[in-house]
Amino acid sequence: MVHSQVQVNKAHKTKFSSKSSRKLHKTSHQDGGRIRKSDSSSVKGAKAARVQRGKMLREQKRAAVLKEKRASGGLNSAPRVIVLFPLSASVELNSLGQDVLKLLASDGSGIASSTVASSEYKLRATVLKAPHGDILTCMEMAKVADLMAFVASASSPWEENKSNFIDSFGSQCLSVLRTIGLPSTTVLIRDLPSDLKKKNEMKKMCASQIASEFPEDCKFYPADTRDELHKFMWLFKAQRLTVPHWRSQRPYVVAQKVGMVVDDESSGNCTLLLSGYLRARKLSVNQLVHVSGVGDFQFSKIEILKDPFPLNERKNQNTMELDVSHDEEVLKSLIPDPIKQEPLIVENTPDPLAGEQTWPTEEEMAEADKNQKQGKLKKRNLPRGTSEYQAAWIVDDTDEENSNDGESDDDGMVLDRGEDSNHERRYDQDFEDDGKSLNVRDFDSATQNDSEMMDDEDLTEEQIKEEIKKIKEAHAEDEEFPDEVETPIDVPARRRFAKYRGLKSFRTSTWDPNESLPQDYARIFAFDNVARTQKLVLKQALKMEEEDRDDCVPTGSYVRMHIKEVPLGAASKLSSLVNTTKPIIGFGLLQHESKMSVLHFSVKKYDGYEAPIKTKEELVFHVGFRQFIARPVFSTDNFSSDKHKMERFLHPGGFSLASIYGPISFPPLPLVVLKISEGSGAPAVAALGSLKSVEPNKIILKKIILTGYPQRVSKMKASVRYMFHNPEDVKWFKPVEVWSKCGRRGRVKEPVGTHGAMKCIFNGVVQQHDIVCMNLYKRAYPKWPERLYPQLL
Question: Which of 486, 507, 534 lies closest to 691, judged by CA?
Answer without folding.
Answer: 534
